[in-house]
What we know:
By secondary structure, the protein is of the alpha/beta class. The chain has two domains: 3-123 and 374-381, 2-Layer Sandwich (Enolase-like, domain 1), CATH 3.30.390.10; 128-361, Enolase-like C-terminal domain (TIM Barrel, Alpha-Beta Barrel), CATH 3.20.20.120. The chain has twelve helices and 13 strands. The strands form three sheets. Strands 5-6-7-8-9-10-11 form a seven-stranded parallel sheet. A three-stranded antiparallel sheet has the order 1-2-3. β12 (356-357) and β13 (360-361) form a beta hairpin. α1 crosses α2, α2 (89-99) runs antiparallel to α3 (104-122) and α9 (254-263) runs parallel beside α10. The longest helix is centred in the first third of the chain and has 19 residues, at 104-122. The chain is globular. The protein starts with a strand and ends with a helix. The mean pLDDT is 96.
Amino acid sequence: MKIRAVEAYPFRLPPRRAFKWAGLNVDLGGFVLVRIETDDGLVGYGEATPLPDWGGDWGRHSGETLATVAHLVNAVFAPALIGRDPTAVTAARRLLDRLVIGNVYAKCAVDIALHDLWGKATGLPIYKLLGGAVRDTVPVAHMIGLMDEGDALREGVAAAADGVRSLQIKGGVDLDRDVRLTAALRHELGAGITLRLDANQGYGHAKTAVAAVRRLADAGVDLVEQPTTGLRYMAEVTAASPVPIIADETCWDINDAIDVSAARGADCLSIYLAKAGGFVGAGNVARLAAAQLMRCDVNGSIESAIGTAANVHFALAHPAVDLGAVIAISAPAGRHPCQVAGRYYEDDVLAEPMAVKDGAILPLDAPGLGIVIDEAKLARFRCA
Length: 384
């Protein structure tokens, strides 16, 4: 079996409401589809969700857009991939790294599509290719974006009513607002819900971030994600924090993870397939975290069903990934299993909704990504 064709193009999904976080200046809902076809007719799907205004500490990882990802895949990666074995996923990643430095979102989309093909060729879901499931379901953490406090409180209460047991609260712009909202959610929801405040580096210098985290802990927060910028500041905050600190922007790939662990820069890691360039790179981060007893989540930029399915397979297979996953629950229009929880888009490109139980996504057991892609939906949502 050999790769016959590679195609990439952008598409957009209709959002349920506006979702924002600190530093985000574009609208969510834009993706790049990667479609890889083999000479025996199998099709693998991958996805990237690049955001030009989001990246790592001090701008060290950043800058990809829908246009740059699509161009890179079509003009650079496709010619090199055609004729190769799609199941040789590690060799493919090494090839992409030789062709282009960085650009991990583009590499991730290709990596997901190759894993989808590998699974379809063997008749196995991706999580079994990764070693098999270590948990029965993937618990979801619903993201509450930057919005009016009243709206944010209602969003969180409604998500909890749908069954999720973890909330990610976007903050980092107004600490007083973050403290009030955390306290209000704790009062309304009680001790059974995990509250995680994501500041997206917004609390500034280490000294101000330390004070911010202490106020949030007093308000009832359980974890704080990326309160400040840079490994040195993160380490200072982690040392002084009464609650676990999660590294997101500070930790993209295995090299960052080694640095975070050595510097004690965080207690937990937030893993994106895209930050590490796909399953291959993200798996390295998860294995290091497991060896260092660091808990992880699988996170992202609220992917479509393609990226979400990839996240579900990854979370099922890696022991360290036991925090609530900040991912969508994907479903076509009119068939979402929840009113609010995991519901970021009004429609999606899969034919059947993902199955959910008690706020967690059940395993996707069909071959590859485990979902059926609606090609008519892809055509409808395709961007010029």
